[in-house]
Amino acid sequence: xxxxxxxxxxxxxxxxxxxxxxxxxxxxxxxxxxxxxxxxxxxxxxxxxxxxxxxxxxxxxxxxxxxxxxxxxxxxxxxxxxxxxxxxxxxxxxxxxxxxxxxxxxxxxxxxxxxxxxxxxxxxxxxxxxxxxxxxxxxxxxxxxxxxxxxxxxxxxxxxxxxxxxxxxxxxxxxxxx
Length: 178
Fold this sequence. Notes:
By secondary structure, the chain is α/β, with parallel strands linked by helices. It has four helices and eight strands. Helices cover about 30% and strands about 30% of the residues. The relative contact order is 0.21.
């Protein structure tokens, strides 16, 4: 039987998003040239929630886009089934903008590397930053988040699962044993 430990509830997730939104506006001296790009799947609702919080703080609508990194994965040939590609929806010019990639969990860094490759194929931002709800460690690549909701030390035998209303009809973060 798998042991499950809840590490964030809906209030904890909301506090983390509020803190990240404040850190984004502080580090970038506002949000004028900021574009949030959510990495499919749960990075997208997190990016939308961050945009809403930044709107409350700065009274500024921050553009939100969606990126699918399926074809940029370094393990694409190892997948057993045909991947389901979801559309990348970047309707904004990212040249000379601050692009903030948003994802739910930072683990090995491979998803972020793929997202960076995808972003660079779309334009030349002035800088790229990373916002994650959970940083669980165990990097395989030299990648770190600029904005972290919660650092959660884990073993490699554990899974961190983020559930968001927009995708899972729930709001919580749990750790469970594989």
